[in-house]
Amino acid sequence: MNTPMPTWLQFFTTPVSWLYTKIIRIRNRHYDKGKNVHSAALPVIAVGNVTVGGTGKTPLVTWIVRKLRSHGYNPAIVMRGYAAVDPQNADEAVEYREKLKDIDVIVGSNRVETIQKYIEGGGTADCLIMDDGFQHRRLARDVDIVVMDYLRDPFLQRVLPAGWLREPIEGLQRCDAVVVSHANCVVEEFAEKVRNITGENPVAWTSHHWSGLELFDAEGKSERPLDWLTGRSVAVRLGIGYPGPVIEALVRLGTKISLQLHAGDHQPFTNDEITQLKKASAEVDGIVMTFKDWVKARDVIDLSTLQCPIIVPALELDFVQGADQLEAKLLAVMK
Do 258 and 234 form a contact (C-beta atoms < 8 A)? Predict the structure, then answer.
């Protein structure tokens, strides 16, 4: 979809978008003056975006944590826990804890308060990575990194609800670095658009690839190469902001998508979805979902009731260009 709302509602969404844009600009001017902005006792690295939905923040935050750890630092991740019944066990928080062993994940809508409680409670981190933090301006940050999805050109978008932008694209002026995701090469036309607003080229260009498959069934976990999917039939359930790259990867592998359940970003599994997946499991070779979906599914789906495995692709981040430059920006914050 080109907009979050049906096309027939465009007549109504356009004026709402104008009003929302005005409110956001007033809000940004408020924070630009330093009003109600609080500093943490630790360096803060914010990773965010200007659009609604997934742009590749989670793999980048994971890379940042691992890179800082390789230099001897001990980062913690700060996040809101959006759309979770139990924010402490939000899908992204669980994903970080499982992929980054011994990581402190500080979760709460009031990030200033939760950080203060963490520090006062004896937290051992020496720096903070704020996930989805570009619009959370109450917390001062030492470096602001914005992830921009090349596949969904934000320069062609309008502000919510008429488009996917969280704020006017001019907001990029306050970021310290742009990382372009889902790009297989450097694209000068896109770089020029970034440069026209920020005055600088994107610091890095990244892409993603699947390194393998994790299969889960009643007998446990097993691993398979990607070509296991070739020629097989699958059902797909993707509760992520932008499922396009996952669908495209399946198509490239020659996988037949027999059923696709549409779900909102971070959406919990409904009883109706579980019923549909159980029925579909008798007709397909597997059910494909992301790790974020899996950490929710495993709590509500009895794998013994499925007649096929759940398939979770292992996602890896690749740097096309700029890994060293981004690393230098991170280390400059720590000095």
Answer: yes
Contacts of 311 (CB under 8 A, 6+ apart): 213, 214, 215, 229, 234, 286, 287, 288, 289
Is the Cβ–Cβ distance between 260 and 235 less than 8 Å?
A: yes
How far from the centroid of its chain's Cα atoms is residue 17's Cα? 24
Which tens digits make up the pLDDT trace of 205-239? Answer: 999 999 999 999 999 999 999 999 999 999 999 99
The residue assigned the tokens 């979805």 is 273
Q: Hey, where are the domains in the chain?
A: 13-23+36-207+318-334, 209-316
What is the DSSP code (8-state) at residue 265?
T
Measured CA to CA, the distance from residue 262 to residue 172 in angstroms comes to 31
Out of 11-20, 31-40, 197-206, least confident range: 11-20
Q: What architecture does CATH give domain 13-23+36-207+318-334? A: 3-Layer(aba) Sandwich (3.40)
Cα distance between residue 234 and residue 170, in whole Å: 42
Number of H helices, E strands in the chain: 9, 12
Indicate the angle between helix axes 291-300 and 91-99, nearest 10 degrees. Answer: 110
pTM comes to: 0.93
Q: What Cα–Cα distance (Å) separates residue 311 from each residue in 18, 222, 225?
A: 42, 10, 11
CATH number of 209-316: 3.40.50
Per-residue confidence band for 240, with pLDDT thresholds at 50, 70 and 90: confident
87-123 pLDDT, tens digit per residue, is 788 899 999 999 999 999 999 999 999 999 999 999 9
Check for a shared fold between 13-23+36-207+318-334 and 209-316. yes
Phi, psi of 78 (to 5 degrees): -110, 130
